Structures
1.
Amino acid sequence: MSSHTGFVYHEKFLEHDTGAGHPENAERLKAIVNRLKECGLWKQLQHLIIDEAEQNWLLRVHTNEHLKYLKQACKQNLRTVDQGDTQVSAESYNAAILAAGGAITATDAVMSGLLKNAFCAVRPPGHHAERDKAMGFCLLNNAAICARYAQVKSGAERIAILDWDVHHGNGTQHIFYDDKSVLYISTHQFPFYPGTGSRGERGVGNGEGYTLNIPMFAGSGEIEFLEVFKEQIIPSLNNFCPDLLIISAGFDAHKDDPLGNLQLTEDSFGIFTELLMDTCENLCGGRIVSVLEGGYNMKALSASVEAHIRTLIS
Ligand SMILES: [Zn+2]
């Protein structure tokens, strides 16, 4: 049975090798793929054929120096590309540009009306990557690249990015901080890594008011999140009226995640997905591109992705 939901995955993403014991590893995607096959959703998804992102799309978000640095670091087998936790291997740059390219393909399919929504099971993740900086396991900011692509290629004016990863997406905030055409909304544990994301960070210049940070205390769960959706996220999306919603879909706010201290369950992600789909239906015909960010407990991650996709496909 076919559906209106696209899916992006490629074995090349497994070749981004972060070294022994690293939480952001290839097993994450293997767990997702296995789970989707086991539960039968795999056969219902529209599997997109993807290619590496063209340099010009990467340059809409990142500096040429950043791209050169990453490429060189992989070529020279430097292991670390930031202060410590962002590891690379020889194939990491190629995996990263394929991840960005996959997200672009999904955006294209959704913006053209070929598909209604899509999930991108990609790695390396992206939301900590700033214009000129790799950080927090992230090399290229996939969600930001999709946003710019949708604006330039598909003529979308306003893009909303909702980031429910347990960590604040400092990179995405940084890239669009002075830009009123991209609304960045983030729920995250706070105070927590990477330290940014306080309520007072609201954007600057033309972008003032177009960054909405919703810090959550450690221990917060579905009840607190549902209140935030009702009181802040949905009204803010309705106000902004996006042409496309991008979800920076990290699943490390799950209660079993080893890196975070929030209390969501896999079902929570299904409920949030439904709320967003209902909201977007009226605003932009339900156009949603969801891009994987964090999530480090294999069982929690794969169950959460299943709940998310089961709802997207419905
Ligand atoms: Zn995270």
2.
Amino acid sequence: MSRTRLIYRSQPFGFDSAMLASILSAARRNNPQWEITGALICRHDVYLQLIEGPSASIEALYSCILNDDRHIDIRLLLKEEMDERLFPAWSMLDDQAPSLFWSADDVAKGALEAASPQDLRAPFIRLSEAHPG
Ligand SMILES: Cc1cc2nc3c(=O)[nH]c(=O)nc-3n(C[C@H](O)[C@H](O)[C@H](O)COP(=O)(O)O)c2cc1C
């Protein structure tokens, strides 16, 4: 079965803790049945999410995410075949962005779109090492 890792970024639309809680609760309710794991890095100016799992599940979830009006300006940054999960123990780990390398100014200037696959994976690798499960 082919498996995919996908990273996108978006801009929160009306970011607050209640909205974040509702997104995370949907993720934690739905992702196990799709065999999806991942992490959501969140800050007032940016969502940076990694989702990983069976390719068909990832396509289905990403199309839901694209239609979600709680964020705007959604940009796919990386999509690749994967062997090993980075977050095997997490239906959706959340992180309030201390591990993000890019400042709000960098993000606004397009640093995420310009980042290499390795640079995009790096904050998630760090997070996964800090939260093995
Ligand atoms: C930034 C962001 C990340 C999301 N991540 C997930 C996710 O990992 N899993 C999920 O099921 N829904 C996620 N959602 C919510 C989906 O877009 C959608 O609202 C949800 O899947 C609907 O589930 P429900 O019908 O069970 O309420 C996310 C939404 C946003 C804005």
